[in-house]
Amino acid sequence: MENTTPGINSGEEGNVLTSLVLKGSLFCLILYVVWIYVDSYYDLGPRLVSKNSSLRPYFLRKCLGLRSPFLPTVWAYSPHVQTVLSAVVCPATLPRFEREYLELKDGGVVALDWATFEEQTLKDHRAVVVVVCGLVTTGNAVARVCHGAWRSGFRAVVFRPRGHGDVLLTTPRLQSFGDPSDFREALEYIRATNPGSNLTAVSLSTGCGVLISYLGEYGSSTYLTAAACISPIYSAENFYYSNAISSIYRWILLQRQKLSLRSHVSCLQNVDALAGTSALRAESMAEFEEMVFCRTNGARTIEEYWEQNEPTREIDEVAVPLLCISSKDDPLVPHESIPTELFLTYPHFFLALTEKGGHCGFFEGFQPDSWAERLAFEFLRAAQKLNVATTHVHSNGNGTMI
Asked: What is the rounded CA–CA span in Å between residue 309 and residue 301?
């Protein structure tokens, strides 16, 4: 009698095997991703590095970002991807900018770009946060920070140094790495035109050099309630001379500097070091810094220049809360160059240190959103509340210190 039991042909066997392989591969991939996350974030970071003062528990209580784990976007786990995202991610709602040009005492010019939105007018009475631009701060990053400021209840104004971007250079002097004199004049103007406003400041990357220098140089008379720096360069000299930074990043930064110089050659043509545009042939950031910024800012030697421009040169004079946000995998700021002892010594210094995040990245969620920028504004808002409470106590003797 003939057997009528249906069989499985070779094609069906192949389909079943392929399906099993695909499912197994997907399962292994999921396990791998979970393992990476558990392995890297078992301590549920970030780690807050600070002196054990009365300010520490206050900011831990007020800043959700200091108590919540930072888990980077799964597809942007690499520090290099995070770093690239910092330059290209922009908000869904782009701000419009109302520009003011400010002429400085020496005839130089800086720009102040007031960020506005559809529902906001230039006469908005929100607290003002000053966004300090650096050489590598892109337009997308500026728009994203201004949008984050608006969502957090701030009104943002972008400080654009002389000669940066489309700001005309009117004197043969460029903004050096850590010279806060132009920023001081800009803040005096902002304060005078916005009486009663509770001023704070935020910066990214190289722009942090000016902000940290300013806090140290002017101490208790900064006009600022607090400041936040995302991926700051703690030691400028090491940054320019270090071989720990990938050559591709050094090349990109050097090209950005040269591109900026090309638009100002006519104004700088009488500076001896730039005769024949020789600086455009510089082969390193350190060489370019010495040929251009050292000479245009009147320093006789490169050693003297760094003495005048190291961001932490007057660090013991800082008198307002400062939050620095850094990542151990930052490709531009090696982990060993982060001065953790500084944050353990001075009561106004706070460091949010993460395992991952790249340089100015710190993006989380499938649709990238900056955890660091959100934390920065939480910190500034908390510092403002503390300042108001302290002022109230000192003014009338009532209330309770936080």
From this structure: 12
Instruction: Give, for all 402 residues of the chain, the pLDDT tens digit.
Output: 445 545 545 556 666 677 776 776 676 566 545 555 555 544 556 999 999 999 999 999 999 999 988 989 989 989 999 999 999 999 988 999 999 999 999 999 999 999 998 765 555 678 999 999 888 889 999 999 999 999 999 999 999 999 888 898 998 888 999 999 999 999 999 999 998 888 999 999 999 999 999 999 999 999 999 999 999 999 988 898 888 888 899 999 999 888 888 888 777 766 665 654 577 888 898 999 888 888 888 888 999 999 999 999 999 999 999 999 999 999 999 999 999 999 999 999 999 999 999 999 999 998 899 999 999 999 999 999 987 766 544 444 443 333
- CA-to-CA distance for 396 and 2, rounded, in angstroms? 105
Residue 35, number of CB atoms within 10 A of its CB: 10
For the chain, the maximum distance between any two Cα atoms, rounded to a whole number of angstroms, is 109
Q: Is 341 exposed, middle or buried (0-12, 13-18, 19+ CB in 10 A)?
A: exposed
Long-range contacts of 124-128 (CB under 8 A, 24+ apart): 124/155, 126/153, 126/154, 126/155, 127/153, 127/154, 127/155, 127/197, 127/198, 127/199, 127/200, 127/384, 128/154, 128/155, 128/156, 128/157, 128/190, 128/194, 128/197, 128/198, 128/199, 128/200
Rounded Cα distance between 61 and 49, Å, is 15
Calpha distance 167→178 (Å, rounded) = 19
What whole-number distance in Å separates Cα of residue 155 and Cα of residue 218? 24
Assess contact for 350 and 249: CB atoms under 8 A: no
Q: In what order do the strands lie in the sheet with 322-327?
A: 47-50, 349-354, 322-327, 227-230, 200-204, 127-132, 154-160, 109-116, 96-103
Determine whether 330 is an active site residue: yes
User: What are the residue boundaries of the structural domains of the chain, listed by start?
Assistant: 44-234+315-389, 236-309
Q: Considering the domain 44-234+315-389 in this protein, what is its CATH number?
A: 3.40.50.1820
pTM: 0.85
> Is position 359 annotated as part of the catalytic site?
yes
* Residue of 50, 203, 205, 231 with catalytic role: 205
Give the Cα separation of 16 and 46 in Å (integer). Answer: 45
From the candidates 179, 182, 329, 330, give the one annotated as an active-site residue: 330
HSE at residue 328, side-chain half, CA atoms within 13 A, is 11
